[in-house]
Amino acid sequence: MGPDGLHVGGDDRRPGGVVKQPNCRGHDPEIFYERARWPEAKTICEDCPLLLECRATFQDDPWPFAGGMTPNQRVTWSRSTKARVFGRCVRCGFRFQEAPRAGRPRMYCSTECRQAAYAAGETQTKRQPLAKISIDTELEAVSLWHQGYGLKRAAKALGISESSVRRIFDGHGLKRTQAERDAISGQAGAMAAQARADVGRMVRKLLAEGQQSPQEIALLANCAVNTVYKIRKGMAA
What we know:
Elements: H1 38-45, H2 51-57, H3 71-78, E1 86-88, E2 95-97, H4 111-120, H5 135-146, H6 151-158, H7 162-171, H8 178-209, H9 214-221, H10 225-236
Antiparallel strand pairs: 1-2
Helix pairs in contact: 6-7, 8-9, 8-10, 9-10
Domain 4Fe-4S Wbl-type: 23-76
Protein name: 4Fe-4S Wbl-type domain-containing protein
Pfam families: Whib (PF02467)
């Protein structure tokens, strides 16, 4: 139990009985509230198997010494990136700390809670409703598909997620064969090559005139300054 007698983990609320015992169990709770006795509380908290759980449980409590830290120390600790990642067991309500990770957050504090939830049929979670897409956005997405846009380009142009664009494409039955994708890729490559050739011709013309600096030429040709230097070096060779 914690400084005020509250259980912070490993107690009879968890299926399977006691899992972990905190070091403070059986000690006088006043030790954790009297500042003069905090050195004694710190000694008790050392090597406690529930140190992080206790710290997470009492991180917003401004009074007791808990989790091996004073209230001010817990405030500083809670502001760190790793310390903000907390979870609460959907089975027993126990609050736990987990390492930052991508993907679905952890739902249960222990294997016992997860197995009990499966046995009780409580593992079904309500699916989040899909984001609504306006008719104008849907029509624009279809138009972009016919222009040869893929998922990433269409999502960036419309300002929506790729999954939303995929829903629109699938809803309209818009699918391309591998040959069509290869043709679009080849067409995009040809357009990019043509654009590079146009920039090269413009840069060479401006360099031949000799009236602008490389920086000014880069602005006029809408290219990088390094590109201008490379073309100038090639002309001098």
